[in-house]
From TrEMBL, chain A:
PANTHER family: BLL4140 PROTEIN. It is a multi-pass membrane protein. The lineage of its organism: Bacteria, Bacillati, Bacillota, Bacilli, Bacillales. It holds the Pfam family BPD_transp_1. PROSITE patterns: ABC_TM1. It comes from the Bacteria. Belongs to the binding-protein-dependent transport system permease family. The chain crosses the membrane at residues 33-59, 98-119, 140-161, 195-216, 228-252, 286-307. This is ABC transporter permease subunit. It is found in: Cell membrane. InterPro entries: MetI-like (IPR000515), MetI-like_sf (IPR035906), UgpAE/MalFG_permease (IPR050809). Residues 94-309 form the ABC transmembrane type-1 domain.
């Protein structure tokens, strides 16, 4: 097809071919980019979109022998959602999940930024790399090991900390079995685990700030604190907000593995989250339909939150897309 | 220039993290458990030569049997169960002997933790990757599998399983019968292992007698925590430890009640312990015991064998545990290493107002049951081999093999008596993994654990409350996970004084109202009455 001529042709009933061909031309023109996009697109289609077909088991009474397609539909269609919503623990589960997650988000955001700033300001190179290595190591520890460490430190009967407390004349504190401490332990250990790892991202962002800005600030007589406040922090604002938005999508993932390993009957009231409940009720009892219903519910909430927060961020001029 | 390089490295890390984050955010959380699905497949890779070699000893020209296995009739059987310490196939003389006897190529995979096993099994079932024979974790799981139509109904094949039937006894099959059909093979009846164990040396040091009533028990527990029995000048000992509510099993027993939510027959009537009037008294006493501050504050958080560890380390003076975990040679060694004077003895259940029972023992329980997937129905040859295997380990030769090892190497026969050789202790520790239909418990243990035989006798001869939960399956509309959680949580509140025991009746009401417990009670009562209990 050629460029649209200025003379409207009488024998062309469709008014659109011009637009279509423009689209086609633009694809043709950037064909190299589209070819490069293809593998990524394929990955998402094959591994992310096609498996979504399985989501329909949330609306079926999934039977392993009959498979996804021939399992009977649930009646009413939202049976498994109702089971979940009507569980006596529903509101408690949701509250716990939400609170633990929000605590982790809020209290977990500042320490890595502070860490990154400190590392950035540190001028002794070997000390800096030492600290950085030390702080990001815990990221690679599994929760089982971290729980072992916590147990050795905080156990009421044999923990080091409680031994000290008792020797100093105090009484042992049930850190791991008391409802008043458990969430703090969860959040604390998560922060400890991810402090250094989180700082890497911020450090990278800081490294990307144009050095001439610092030079200019120095010429204007800015102190170090001033430079941090007026150059470094605004420089990483985009990254901070982006990470926040991405994390909001996970607001209903409060950390299954960590909690499953650390909780016990005495702290269920503050520690039982959606995922642990699904594990006990859905997966351990072969009730996969219930498990996917809850998964779908979580995904929906996460999607709403991501879209909403992005919109909000855009209003401040910082959205991801 | 150097700075630029750092920047680019940093950026690379940053981008990587971003893409990881993005990948996670688009993932679906409900499939997190599936990641290990392929694990069981690799356990016995590279053992194709084994049956051939074994057969070669027999003079059979089976050198080419590896590969498909079909040519020489060696059928490959995939078996999974819980267990540990399985040797590699080339050192696994039991596998080799069985393969030789019934022309199979066994591929046994074991999982150390019960929870792990359950997950793996569920994943394999869900993905259609069925093992040919597998352990069913419990009765609830059996019902789930049957409901899903995953298990082969064994009823029509019973005449092919004569040896098995003779070995485990007809009565045992009740445990795996569902709606009149047999869906799994239970192991031969087992015996109870658990008792209270107490530090004799601590008792002597404080000048105390082993407690025989629950009041004495309370005093001893208290003394162990307060009077420094280990003599290190510090108040760092615990009176009593254990895992969860089983810590108090004999205390419940002393009031004549079973552990929380167990069914038993009392005075001719079927009772659930939650509705037993004596339950309140038992809880009140346990609360009194905990109020002394002498009970391990972490009993509810003790998972696995943490209570055993506390006992071995010399922290606790009384522990509710099974005899193997405190009296097997490896543990007595550890105990002596910590303190050469440590002396653990078993304690008879203390007497209370409801009698003297060393906790509950499940009449319907088994130490394991094994099922065959329905998918095997059409593979007659394989199915026959599975039957052959089950019959073989139930017959005289096979049973001796999986109990004691190879005749002439690990044991010798003197008349009917099995005499172990030194090698048995060294090499044959894992043979129980192949006891798919169980073993004659008492005789087996006395032979294999001769040094522990007095502990075995003791644990076995204590009076127990016979509970019936092993016969039950959960009705629809009852969510056992929620109900169990509710019961445990409320019980914890009662015994730790967070809720007054006066509120017990209100607890039962809530349980019935919000957990559908009434449905469960009615269904369970009916199931048990159908079996002839409490009538």
């Amino acid at each position: 097809m050629n460029r649209r001529t200025s003379v409207p042709s009488a024998h062309d009933p469709a008014a659109q071919p011009g637009v279509l061909s423009a689209f086609g031309r633009s694809i043709w023109r950037y064909k190299a980019f589209y070819v490069m996009l293809l593998p990524g697109l394929l990955y998402y289609i094959v591994f992310k979109y096609i498996p979504m077909y399985g989501v329909i088991i949330a609306f079926k009474n999934y039977n392993l022998m009959e498979g996804i397609w021939s399992s009977p539909w649930a009646s009413p269609w939202n049976k498994h959602f109702l089971t979940f919503f009507e569980s006596p623990y529903f509101s408690q589960l949701l509250t716990n999940t939400f609170l633990i997650s929000v605590y982790k988000l809020i209290f977990g955001m500042v320490p890595p930024i502070a860490m990154a700033l400190l590392l950035n300001e540190c001028r002794i190179k070997w000390f800096r790399s030492l600290i950085q290595t030390l702080t990001y190591m815990p990221h690679f520890l599994s929760w089982v090991i971290i729980y072992g460490i916590l147990l050795a430190l905080l156990s009421q009967s044999s923990g080091l900390l409680n031994r000290w407390l008792e020797d100093a004349g105090g009484t042992a504190i049930p850190f791991l079995t008391s409802t008043s401490y458990f969430r703090s332990i969860l959040v604390g250990s998560e922060i400890w685990q991810n402090l250094g790892w989180g700082a890497i991202i911020y450090l990278a962002a800081i490294a990307g700030i144009d050095p001439t800005l610092y030079e200019a600030a120095r010429v204007d007589g800015a102190s170090r604190m001033r430079m941090i406040w007026h150059v470094t922090l605004p420089g990483i604002r985009t990254v901070v907000i982006m990470l926040l938005i991405l994390n909001l999508g996970h607001i209903l993932d409060a950390g299954f593995e960590q909690i499953y390993i650390m909780y016990n009957v005495q702290v269920y009231a503050v520690a039982d989250i959606l995922d642990t409940w699904v594990f006990r009720t859905g997966l351990q009892q072969l009730n996969f339909s219930l498990a996917s219903a809850v998964g779908l519910f979580k995904a929906a909430i996460g999607l709403i939150l991501v879209l909403g927060s992005n919109k909000l961020a855009k209003r401040w001029g910082e959205g991801i897309w | 220039m150097r700075r630029m390089k750092i920047v680019s490295v940093m950026l690379a890390v940053f981008m990587l993290s971003c893409s990881v984050l993005a990948g996670c955010s688009s993932g679906n959380s409900s499939n997190g458990e599936a990641s290990d699905a392929n694990k069981p497949a690799n356990a016995a890779a590279g053992n194709a030569n084994q049956p051939a070699d074994a057969a070669a000893d027999n003079g059979a020209p089976a050198k080419d049997a590896e590969g498909s296995g079909a040519s020489a009739g060696a059928v490959k059987l995939d078996i999974i169960e819980t267990g540990n310490n399985l040797p590699t196939p080339d050192k696994d003389f039991i596998k080799q002997a069985i393969d030789k006897a019934i022309q199979t190529d066994l591929n046994l995979t074991v999982y150390a933790s019960g929870d792990d096993y359950k997950n793996q099994l569920n994943v394999r079932m869900a993905s259609g990757n069925f093992p040919d024979l597998f352990q069913v974790p419990d009765r609830a799981a059996l019902k789930q599998f049957v409901d899903q139509g995953l298990l082969l109904d064994l009823t029509p094949y019973m005449d092919k399983l004569q040896d098995v039937k003779g070995f485990i006894g007809d009565e045992s099959l009740k445990k795996t019968t569902m709606g009149g059909d047999v869906y799994a093979i239970p192991k031969a009846p087992n015996i109870p292992y658990n008792t209270y164990w107490i530090r004799k040396d601590w008792l002597d040091k404080l000048g105390l007698q082993p407690p025989s009533t629950i009041d004495e028990f309370l005093n001893v527990t208290k003394a162990f925590a307060e009077q420094d029995p280990d003599g290190n000048g510090k108040k760092d000992t615990i009176g009593l430890t254990g895992s969860k509510f089983s810590t108090f099993a004999p205390i419940f027993g002393a009031f004549g009640v079973g552990d929380p939510n167990t069914f038993y027959v009392k005075e001719g009537k079927l009772v659930n312990s939650l509705y037993d009037p004596a339950m309140k008294d038992a809880l009140a006493f346990i609360k009194k015991l905990i109020d002394t501050g002498a009970v391990d504050p972490e009993i509810m958080a003790n998972t696995g064998l943490q209570h055993q560890e506390k006992a071995i380390k010399g922290q606790a003076g009384i522990v509710w545990i099974d005899w193997p975990n405190l009296s097997k040679d490896q543990f007595t060694e550890q105990i002596k290493k910590v303190n050469p004077n440590a002396d653990w003895i078993q304690l008879a259940p203390p007497k209370g107002p409801g009698g003297q029972y060393d906790g509950p023992f499940d009449a319907g329980g088994t130490s394991g049951m094994y099922a065959i997937p329905k998918a095997l129905e059409n593979d007659k040859e394989k199915l026959q081999k599975v039957f052959d295997l089950l019959n073989y380990v139930s017959g005289t030769d096979g049973s001796q093999l999986v109990q004691f090892g190879i005749k002439g190497t690990h044991f010798n026969l003197e008349g009917d008596k099995v005499v172990p050789t030194d090698l048995m202790g060294k090499e044959a520790g894992f043979t129980w993994l192949y006891q798919f239909t169980g073993r004659p418990e008492m005789a087996y243990l006395q032979t294999k654990f001769a040094p522990q035989s007095k502990y075995i006798e003791f644990a076995n001869s204590q009076p127990r409350i016979q509970i019936l939960n092993g016969f039950l399956s959960n009705p629809d509309g009852y969510n056992p996970a929620d109900a169990t959680r509710f019961i445990e949580e409320e019980f914890v509140k009662f015994i730790y004084g967070k809720n007054p025991i006066a509120g017990y009746d209100a607890f039962l009401k809530t349980l019935e109202a919000s957990m559908n417990f009434k449905t469960y009670m009615d269904a369970s009562t009916k199931q048990l009455e159908d079996l002839g209990y409490g009538k």
